[in-house]
Design a protein that fits this description.
alpha/beta; 7-stranded mixed sheet
Length: 246
């Protein structure tokens, strides 16, 4: 588990998080839930502002959200009607045994205390139910995206996750994975806003935040693929893992 200060830093920027963070491709969510007919009873664990939950609702599934940060839960309630948001965490899920057909996690699994979380996820899943963590990762095979990640100290790559996420404990099958690509279109200011919702930026000193913003503006002004553009296409690689409850 990584720094809890960073893990709980997002609530102060909940509205910006919901505005600037990318959505999840529906193809990725369908793959995660392959074999489960709608309406499946799903849990969105570490649900944030409801970006993943809204994708599941759009596919016709039932959603119960679990989120530890009160600021994120408040934003969830404001933006995601039709799904309750419960106070709780991956290590302490306030739901009964065998409650869910599927537990999904968007952008949050790397914050978990894995041993405790795996036990709770297995408890909440029915036998044969699905656990599926999902990540939207900026496609750093593109030169300027790699530069942006370096400036903003944005970590997380497909290769790193594939090496790090190898099992979900003794009660879940060995995970399989799939990758999906998509893009978002942002203005230069939107791009700066998106970087401002990263945990490193949120917990950095004011001086460090100003330095990151200066270097990003210089990249936007000088890179041949970005300079003078009113709309920037930011490519993503969405990585999905899927495992069944034994």
């Amino acid at each position: 588990m990584t720094d809890p200060t960073q893990a709980l830093s997002f609530g102060a920027a909940a509205a910006e998080y919901d505005r600037y963070r990318p959505r999840y491709p529906q193809a990725a969510l369908r793959w995660a839930l392959d074999g489960l007919a709608a309406p499946a009873r799903t849990v969105d664990l570490g649900a944030g502002t409801g970006i993943l939950a809204r994708g599941l609702l759009a596919l016709g599934h039932e959603v119960t959200a679990v989120e530890p940060d009160p600021g994120m839960r408040a934003q969830f309630a404001a933006t995601t009607p039709g799904a309750p948001a419960l106070a709780g965490s991956a290590e302490s899920v306030p739901l009964p045994d065998g409650y869910a057909d599927a537990v999904l996690v968007g952008q949050a699994y790397h914050w978990f205390d894995r041993e405790r979380a795996h036990s709770e996820i297995a408890r909440v899943l029915r036998p044969g139910g699905v656990f599926a963590p999902v990540w939207n990762l900026r496609d750093d095979r593109v030169g300027w995206v790699n530069d942006m990640n370096r400036i903003a100290e944005i970590g997380g790559t497909v290769d790193r996750l594939l090496g790090d996420v190898t099992d979900f404990g003794p009660d879940l099958d060995r995970p399989e994975w799939a990758e999906f690509t998509h893009v978002t279109e942002l203005t230069p200011e939107d791009l700066l806003g998106m970087v401002g919702t990263r945990s490193y930026h949120l917990t950095a000193t004011p001086e460090r935040r100003r330095q990151i913003d200066r270097e990003l503006r210089a990249l936007l002004d000088t890179h041949p693929e970005l300079a003078g553009r009113e709309a920037i296409v930011l490519p993503y690689r969405t990585l999905v893992f899927r495992a069944r409850r034994r």
